[in-house]
Amino acid sequence: MSEGAIRVLIADDQALMRTGFRMILDAQEDMEVVGEAIDGADALRQFEKLEPNVVVMDVRMPTMDGIEATRRLSAHGRPARVLILTTFDLDDYVYEALRAGASGFLLKDRPPEELVAAVRVIAAGEALLAPSVTRRLIEEFARRAPTASRAELDQLTEREREVLVLMARGLSNAEIAGALFVAETTVKTHVGRVLHKLGLRDRAQAVVLAYESGLVQPGD
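^ that's the sequence the OP posted. Answer follows.
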C-alpha cells in the first residue's frame, strides 16, 4: 500500500456488496478501504472517525439513505467526495444525490475496473459524469421550471458560459477542446474559473446549476 493511498469508506446495507467492493478496491496499490458503513447514519459516524478521501455510497439504505447522508457530508467542515452507486441509470435518487453534493455516480453492474477508475477520478477532484448516462439522467429530471437564478451566471465571460454549456451536455475536457478549437489545458483553466466564480466544488454541481438556471434546456 502506497503512503499516499486513497482512503475509501464503503456505505452499503448489503454485506455481500460491501465485501465485493472492498476486495476490488483493496487490491489496488493506491487504495485502502478504511471502513464500512451499513447505512447513511453509520457513514456519517465512520466519516468523522476515519476521515476517508472518498465515500462509495449506496442510494437506498435503511435508517438514513444515501441522499441525506451525502447532503450532510457536503455541509461538513471537511466535505467528502461521494461516489453514488445505483442500480438504475435513470433513477430519480441519483439526480437528487447530485443536487445534494455527490461528485458522481456509477451503476452497480459496471465492471470492477470502472469502480476503481471512478474512485481515482473523484479522489483527484474531478466529477464522474459519464456522458452516455448523464445526458439521459439530467435531461430526464431537469424537465421542470428553473429553480436557480441566472443572475450569478452574469459574472462568467462568454467563453466560460460556452464551456459551462458544453460541460452540462456531458462533454469531457478533450471533447470541449475539440468543439472550441482550443487546447485541453485551456479548457481546464476555463472549467476552474467557472467553478471558482460560481462557488461550486466540482463539475457535477456545475452541470446541475446549468440546467436548474435554465442556461441549458433538456433536449438541447
